[in-house]
Amino acid sequence: MTTERRLAHAGFTLTRDYPVPPARIWNAFAMEKEKLAWFGAGDAFEPGEWAFDFRVGGHDIDEGRFHDGPVTRYVATYTDIVEHVRIVTTYDMWLDEVHMSTSVASLEFEAIDNGTRFTHTEHGVFFDQFWADGPNREEGTRGNLEALSNHLL
């Protein structure tokens, strides 16, 4: 492990239109059973600690190991929730117990003619050896949105 101290910032916005009403997508985030059905890395992931507390000030934890690989840990705090409109979180990520990043993410739900426009906007700060990890975070979020799509449709 490097002892070099670096800091990098990365941000992205992903927008997807889903042919389901806002309440359906909202429930995929707001109801524990729904979120468990799609959030994470699927079969490539051995689940570990999980906590779900969907309320302003509440915390989510999702920890697990990629088969024969590293342990990831996601710890989020809900900072703003407006039902069927938006969810804002701050969250930290660890890889094998090394703090890799802190992010703020907003999730927006907008009714459109054929369903819902979902927008995920995120800004992350990446620490030390993870300073160049911004593109991987965006790619991981794209994977989560694909898992959400598969769950909804």
How does this structure look, described?
- The protein has 153 residues and is an alpha+beta fold.
- The protein has a single domain (7-152), classed as Alpha-D-Glucose-1,6-Bisphosphate, Chain A, domain 4 (2-Layer Sandwich), CATH 3.30.530.20.
- The chain has helices spanning 22-30, 32-38, 134-152; strands at residues 7-18, 45-51, 59-66, 71-82, 86-95, 98-112, 115-127.
- Strands 1-7-6-5-4-3-2 form a seven-stranded antiparallel beta sheet, with helices on one face.
- Helix 1 (22-30) packs across helix 2.
- The protein is globular.
- The protein starts with 6 loop residues before the first strand and ends with a helix.
- The model has no long low-confidence stretch (mean pLDDT 88).
